[in-house]
Amino acid sequence: MNLSRLDLNLVVALRSLLEERNVTRAGQRVGLSQPAMSAALARLRRHFDDDLLARVGGHYELTALGQVLLDRTATAYDVLERLFASQADFDPVSESREFKLIASDYAVAVFGTELARVVHEEAPGIRLRFTQPPTTIVDDTATLLSTTDGLLMPHGVVSDFPATDLYQDRWVFLVANDHPSVEDRLTRQDLGRLPWVTYQRTYDAPAVRQLGMLGVEPRVEVSVDSFQLLPLLVAGTRRIALIQARLAHLMTPLAAVRVLEPPYEAVPLREAMWWHPVHTHDAAHIWLRETAARVGRRMADGHDTPEPA
Length: 309
Known about the structure:
With 309 residues, the protein is α/β, with parallel strands linked by helices. Helices cover 41% and strands 21% of the residues.
């Protein structure tokens, strides 16, 4: 494929056509007349040797290839938009733009809130948008990173991409204040006999994988897509949950739970910000990464990981 012979404006038209599935609406969306959008569709059909949009009754539906191209076109559009938004200089005080960061609710609660506060004070025109990591993060990390400005994720989940370390955390267990059979400590036998609440993402943290190496098979009773829900699902039950100490420190005042140390030496958690190499020398991304690293250092210097109550 010779990219020099392609009109990249067709990417804009293709995305609009595939998402709107209507020539007139697609043209209105990107500021083209109906004849101009029809001409773009004709060029795209010749290029792909496929109708892309097939008339069914009084409306259009995507062909099989059109369905395949739907997600790919959105990704390509995001990559091109970020490519051409690259800057040699960046002034956070005067710039106005949005940064998209992929982060779990844990990372947003513990780190993202402080990052947002610093950005609010130092760069009033900058907006942050946090989105949850998709389940495909391990399988398609390159594509994910190419369409975002940063990924907040502990070491041990992704690799082979540049990253800057942010802060450290450690793993602790939550039990109900009135747990009928756990007093001031957990045993390894407790980990095997008691029901669990777990974070249900497919990319289990190294600390969870460590349990398997220790011969502990959690008896999962409830799984959720949010770390912040773990304390609420532990309170008033016999369940236990593995959670990050910094988040536990924030959440224990909201639920009737206690924090206990693991009955083994749990692997530490090292949170980092990962990015695609295409962003490495972009001035705006350099500022974002340096700001994130500075916030991480403040977290480490201001106070250590909270000790259990």
